[in-house]
Amino acid sequence: MTILNNISLKEYNTFGVECYAKRFVSIDSFYDLQQLLKTEKDLFLLSGGSNILLTKDIEKLVVLINIKGISIDRENKNTVHLTVNSGENWHEFVLWCISQDYGGLENLSLIPGNVGTCPIQNIGAYGVEVKDTITKVEAIEIETGKLITFANAECQFGYRNSIFKNDVKGKYIITSVSFELTKTNHQLNTSYGAIEVALQEKKITNPTIKDVSDAVISIRKSKLPDPKEIGNSGSFFKNPVISTEQFLQLQKEYPAIPSYKISEATTKVPAGWLVEQCGFKGKRFGDAGVHEKQALVLVNYANASGLEIYNLAKSIQQTVFNKFKIDLEIEVNII
Ligand code: EPU
Known about the structure:
Shape: globular
CATH class of the largest domain: Alpha Beta
Oligomer: single chain
Bound molecules: uridine-diphosphate-2(N-acetylglucosaminyl) butyric acid
CATH architecture of the largest domain: 2-Layer Sandwich
């Protein structure tokens, strides 16, 4: 464990924004983490860097959580319980599960980031959220160095939300996440329109978890930019939930507005649609831009600064508010 000085974070954030860490350390074992916490408490935790927008250099000690390892806790004929250390890459873990025929995570294929951060924003895609398979999350309390277990119910999972973004934000370092996955009778979730279409195109009537994963991978590749090619952080905004009353008013003016009913009183509308209606889709401002195939994704074409991207986000929020009277909430962590 060596603390390095003045390290560029460009390759550690999927936006590919150039910012510097005054001090930087990569941690690859629990032991090193516990040792570090004896002397350092004021930390900036970095994982896959897939949900942050860096707008300035980091003064705190940047700690890259790189603890690897997957273990099988127990299994029977039907299910397997796994514990996965934080530093494992999410998509590689999903692919490994599929190779073992462990079901439950196939719809979450190709999501950037690491396992340790998946519970923080309760990653979700194509009708599945990671909370549906998580049994517990283990985390070290920064103040005391104690290992604490959060059972699924204690994580207070919601849409792109959990206790780790709220009550205990900044107090814990997630060290591992445990999952319960299926070995037989996989509960496939193919109801999401685009998955059905992708399976039909391949004439697959009785899909395996690998077929579903392949379908998700091809849909994501067709809509979402690969961070290795164009810097981005996935959905930049959350899909807003508005009152059904406001939704019905909007629908009169915009009959094509897509929506998902949340309850009698509330309706979710896709932020991507709102941003597109405001004319931002595919627009480029210097090296910052809005993706041409999915208006919910802001991109860094090459050398945009975090501030340029943030300013673009603010101007999108303002324009969407002026047109629709809807507040778009930023989903990415602005640093
Ligand atoms: N839409 C537009 N214009 C756009 C983008 C979308 O009109 O530029 C419309 C689509 O036509 C569709 C609706 O919006 O009617 C929904 O679009 P899509 O299916 O692409 O999903 P989304 O709601 O925009 C959410 C997640 C994604 C996830 C997809 C698929 C959030 C904030 N985003 O996007 O998650 O992959 O559903 O399940 O909930 C991420 O979090 O980084 C992410 C990519």
